[in-house]
Amino acid sequence: MSWKLEEIELLNPIVLCGGMLNDALILKAIDFGIGAVTLGTYSSNSLSSHPKPWLYKLKGSDCYVNSYGIRHSYFDKEGFIKKTVAYAHSKKVKVICSYVEREPELSEKAVKLFEEAGCDIVEYNPTPLVMGCSGKDPGDLLDPVNLVKLTTEHIKVASSFSSIPISVKFPSTISNVVRAWNQFVERGASIAHIMNAIIPALVLVDGEKYFKTERGFGGMSGECVKPVSMARVKMLSDGGARNIIGTGGIMSLQDVQDYISSGASAVGVHSLIYSKGLAGLKSLIESSNKLFRA
Ligand SMILES: Cc1cc2nc3c(=O)[nH]c(=O)nc-3n(C[C@H](O)[C@H](O)[C@H](O)COP(=O)(O)O)c2cc1C
């Protein structure tokens, strides 16, 4: 039995996704023997933040809406990244280092720092740009054609300055995943991470916007995302892609199996932590250790 992303061996197919998880929680996931953890998402500047609340649970469901923000730069986090990579490797856990930049030339700094820190995979995650987290209006990036073009420019820079595998975390706004993936592969990406939260999402409570972002927009995660994300995993895998991380709404072992049978090589979890806590994560890892790869 072996779980692999590219040629990178994983203890099991579970990957902790990037987000607002605190550093202590990431270390706990490593102690549980998770397949991989994602650190971040970071940028060269802490791009945007806003007051709490950051998370809203949709009533009667395991669905959430979160308000985006990039709260740390990878320069601030360099010490943590290095220490965590060393600790993870001592436990045979792999590390994905995730970042977002608007200007393609800035990808050079990020990937050099990640490679030097020993990260196993570098992940470009453009969704925060579409949410306006770069401090700039997303403007043209709301159009998926422009977003795909910008992403290919970042991959091109990243692959020319780094020898570690490059993952792209797909924004929900790119629905033609096969066409986009062909362009990303051509520039040097080798892992497709499907997908980030569904954007934009708006929550009103008593007629008032719940999040204090400019327009109150956020992204939807949790079980509501699973059917959409799984369909895209299937589209990519039917198109011949391998090394797919399937993410969105994984709460149980059955969800993991569903993604694997749709063509994913590994699966990302995030909202699970809000729904079932650390105990839920531990139990999913333990049950996944017994899964056999077809
Ligand atoms: C509170 C919160 C913060 C998030 N922040 C990030 C982030 O910083 N980077 C990222 O790539 N995805 C981020 N996400 C998206 C998740 O990593 C994941 O792609 C998405 O939530 C779908 O998976 P899930 O249903 O298991 O949560 C965040 C999600 C939540 C709920």
Description of the structure:
The structure is a single chain. The protein has 294 residues and is of the alpha/beta class. The protein has one domain (3-50, 67-197, 225-288): TIM Barrel (Alpha-Beta Barrel), CATH 3.20.20. Helix content is 36%, strand content 22%. The chain is built from nine helices and 16 strands. It has helices at 23-31, 78-90, 107-117, 127-130, 144-161, 177-187, 226-238, 253-261, 271-288; strands spanning 3-5, 8-10, 14-16, 36-42, 55-57, 63-66, 94-99, 121-124, 166-169, 191-194, 198-202, 204-205, 208-209, 217-222, 244-247, 266-269. The strands form four sheets. It has an eight-stranded parallel β-barrel with strand order 3-4-7-8-9-10-15-16, surrounded by seven helices. A hairpin with a 2-residue loop joins β12 and β13 (208-209). α1 runs parallel beside α2 and α3 (107-117) packs across α5. The longest helix is centred in the middle third of the chain and has 18 residues, at 144-161. It is globular and about 50 Å long. It starts with a strand and ends in a 6-residue tail after the last helix. The mean pLDDT is 93. The site of flavin mononucleotide has 25 residues, from β6, β14 and α9. Flavin mononucleotide (FMN) binds at residues 17-20, 41, 54-55, 64, 66, 98, 125, 169, 196-197, 221-222, 225, 247-250, 269-272.
